[in-house]
Amino acid sequence: MIAIRVDTLCGLGHFMRCKWLALALHEYGKEVVFLVDKAVPEHLSLECMNEIKILPYAQTHKEDAHNTLKALSEIQKQVESVIVDSYRFDSEWEVEVAKQIPSIIVVDDLERAHSAKLLIDSKWCGDKTGERYASLDNKLLGPDFAMLSPEYHDCSRRKREQNRVMFSLGGGGDWCIAADLIALLLSTAPEVEVDVIIGPMAEGVESLTQLANTTCRLQLVQQPATLAPYYQSCSLFVGALGTSLYELAATNTPALTFSIAPNQANQQGALDDLGHYFHVPDLLTRKASEVVALILTLVKQSKRIIKARETAPIKVDGRGAIRVAEMILANDIKSSVTQRTLHSQQTNIWQLTESVQIRQCNDSDINRYLAARNLPNNTWRMTITSDIDVLAHYQWWFSNSRESFVMEANGKPLLYVWHQIYNIESQDYLIGGWFAASGEVNFAHAQMVLEWQLGETAAKYPKAIWLAVINKENKFVNLLNQRAGFVSIEQDEKKMRATQQLFPKASLTEFNYVGKEVNT
């Protein structure tokens, strides 16, 4: 028999992932018993109802460990291993239980110290994933070991409904703030329908209930046994990150998420690897009208977002519980770390040297582009020196008509470069720019990208004139453009009019106004 000590005091996510693991263990003929803090809603525990025992509340780790061992001794069956999934218990608990049952298996995602035979952490932390829990010999790390319902095994596609938005805060959460957001969304966009998933521990549902009584476009779904059909049919998911991260990845669902718990803190680069591009931790504190506007933009761009998700380097196939069960039961436990898989979206790539290339930007660049643009060493050079807000950036990304590219060295971004064509007073003008994404950018890189850009635009826009404004303090770029043939246009009224129209925030006292014929 295998025992699972799972925390049910801080939501149901811990129990649910352990339930899927228990069902996988059942498939291999293993008996499982759950030890919980309080009763689990019946509809969520039907498959293992006879295997759940409630422990008394303990004041200390040691007391809970003793309660656990006492409950297991009363079962009168040999317990091979104890799996523990709780943020409340740490290595002190594990050491105490191991005095009688040496095989301790830990499920965690907070990178705490442990004393265990095996550790399972499905959190993806990019290149640092394999470095976590360095003191432990045996560990299963990354989304390959995300323990999801069998319904997420290689999810088949379902036809998504247009203009259908799904909201969820997980098993609990306070709906007060989100309810105002949903009300504004429904009043702003009469074409939108909303499904709200109400978890068993949810609070502040009264205002949602009142709102649902006034419109047929809002459906409140009370404690569904599974969310898979809702993920698969909606145009956009809006909600707390948590366990939904891997369910969203498994179903390729477009999503806008926020954080409501410490374990939902994630580095955006790691989320990008999963194809999860729109995470704003403080979304619920933002101006409601701006959030609703972004929701509507993402709904409109749903197909484009799905396409980006499908080419993400980290895939979730829903078989994590099976993999974990197999490893727990294996005679020889081996560590395993999830690896990226390359799914290229690229068609336009220019190889400049053996290690340096330029490629056209795609939607996977959306967050890296903003992070680079907002680097302090870049912002002071801009006509707009303040940071660009993430909500404004997302809106701009889907509406801009720039041609944007990234220069990479050995697959890592060095700098971003862009240009855009305008027609003013019957003349085509090109404007553009570049900004570093790495501290390794040098003069040779900048010269290389400028020469490439001038060559590409000369072929594509042979009659255009380049216009640029360069901060007078930016000696690096002033010299670079001077060498490339840019000259002052301050005596050319027509070009000055066009430049001031294109760069209204660039004052003559701070910026040099320069230009260049494309084919000169």
Beta fraction: 15-25%
Report the CATH C-level class of the largest domain. Alpha Beta
Number of domain modules: 3
Quick one: biggest sheet?
8 strands, parallel
Count of discrete alpha- or pi-helical segments spanning 4 or more residues: 18
CATH-level-2 architecture of the largest domain: 3-Layer(aba) Sandwich
Oligomeric status of the shown chains? single chain
Structural class: alpha/beta
Strand order of the largest sheet: 3-2-1-4-5-6-7-13
Average pLDDT confidence is: 94
Helix content: 25-40%
Give me the CATH superfamily of the largest domain.
Gcn5-related N-acetyltransferase (GNAT)
**Straight-line distance between termini:** 79 Å
Overall spatial form? elongated
CATH topology of the largest domain: Aminopeptidase
Global Rg: 28 Å
Which keywords apply here?
single chain, 520 residues, alpha/beta, Rossmann fold, 3 domains, 8-stranded parallel sheet, 8-stranded mixed sheet, 18 helices, elongated, PseG
Task: Explain what this protein looks like in three dimensions.
This protein folds into three domains: 2-148, 3-Layer(aba) Sandwich (Rossmann fold), CATH 3.40.50; 153-311, Rossmann fold (3-Layer(aba) Sandwich), CATH 3.40.50.2000; 349-517, Gcn5-related N-acetyltransferase (GNAT) (Aminopeptidase, 3-Layer(aba) Sandwich), CATH 3.40.630. Helix content is 33%, strand content 21%. The termini are far apart. The longest helix is centred in the last third of the chain and has 18 residues, at 443-460. It has 520 residues and is α/β, with parallel strands linked by helices.
